[in-house]
TrEMBL record:
Chief place where the protein resides: nucleus
Keyword RNA-binding: yes
Protein name: U11/U12 small nuclear ribonucleoprotein 35 kDa protein
Annotated RRM domain residues: 51-129
BP GO terms, sorted: mRNA splicing, via spliceosome
Span list, region Disordered: 147-170, 186-256
Subcellular location field: Nucleus
PANTHER family hit by this protein: U1 SMALL NUCLEAR RIBONUCLEOPROTEIN 70 KD, U11_U12 SMALL NUCLEAR RIBONUCLEOPROTEIN 35 KDA PROTEIN
GO terms for MF: mRNA binding; snRNA binding
Transmembrane segments: none
GO terms for cellular component: precatalytic spliceosome; U12-type spliceosomal complex
Basic and acidic residues composition bias: residue spans: 147-162
Length: 256
């Protein structure tokens, strides 16, 4: 844990595929490819890698002139290389900008990240291909960042740094020694589960009896309440029947 850093100082494809840099087994095929790859940086690339910025997520319509207009505010630019497709000539959405002074490079690295250029939020980092030991590009399964949709996220870079590993304290073995757990329970006065179940049943019965002893209809048992309701309905029916007979008798006496 003392050696943990959010940004990788040396590129390791296995660690880059781990959210906290602690994986011991590759979790996707691209990591396998990156681990077996032997990448040699392009020797035809000129310029000082320690004075070069990597600019990505550009709008495909952004030109070298637009990049010079934006990044020249941080210092004097020596060269801009917008990477284009060899066949079509269209922009691939990323570029390399070389400054004349390190001070300008550091200022652009600090302030230009997440700028909006041509309605696109850009990403800015140092060039890693020639400066980070063990670097493997994205096309070979390496790199940093990546999209969630691809299922091949890479960690340890500026865009998606490592998360700090969870360091749980080791449990003391004495806690699990024989007899200690029983003594801890006995201090609380706890008993076995059968005793607890019997106590629960007794308390439930006593609460039920208390409800049934309450005055009036409130708190009576459901059976008693139902019996009383049935008796009330019977008495009401008998009363209606007597009234009907009395009316019939009076009607007959009136006719006679």
């Amino acid at each position: 844990m003392n050696e943990w850093v959010p940004i990788a100082k040396e590129y390791d494809p296995l660690k880059a595929g781990s959210i906290d840099g602690t994986d011991e087994e590759p979790h996707d095929r691209a990591v396998w490819r990156a681990m077996s790859a032997r990448y040699v940086p392009n020797k035809d690339v000129s310029g000082d890698p320690h004075l070069t910025l990597f600019v990505a997520r550009l709008n495909l319509q952004t030109t070298e002139e637009k990049l010079k207009e934006v990044f020249s505010r941080y210092g004097d630019i020596r060269k801009i290389r917008l990477v284009r497709d060899l066949v079509t000539g269209f922009s691939k959405g990323y570029a390399f900008i070389e400054y004349k002074e390190e001070r300008a490079l550091l200022k652009a690295h600090r302030d230009a990240n997440k700028l909006i250029i041509d309605q696109r939020e850009i990403f800015v980092d140092f060039e890693l291909e020639r400066t980070l030991k063990g670097w493997i590009p994205r096309r070979l399964g390496g790199g940093f960042g990546g999209k969630k949709e691809s299922g091949q996220l890479r960690f340890g870079g500026r865009d998606r740094p490592f998360r700090k590993p969870i360091n749980l304290p080791a449990m003391k073995n004495d806690f699990y020694n024989e007899g200690k757990r029983e003594r801890a329970w006995s201090r609380g006065g706890s008993r076995d589960w059968k005793t607890g179940e019997r106590d629960y049943e007794r308390s439930r019965e006593s609460r039920r009896s208390e409800r049934e002893r309450t005055s009036g209809g409130y708190g009576k048992s459901e059976r008693e309440l139902e019996h009383r309701a049935r008796e009330d309905r019977g008495r009401a029916a008998e009363g209606r029947e007597r009234e009907r007979k009395d009316r019939n008798r009076e009607a007959k006496d009136g006719k006679g």
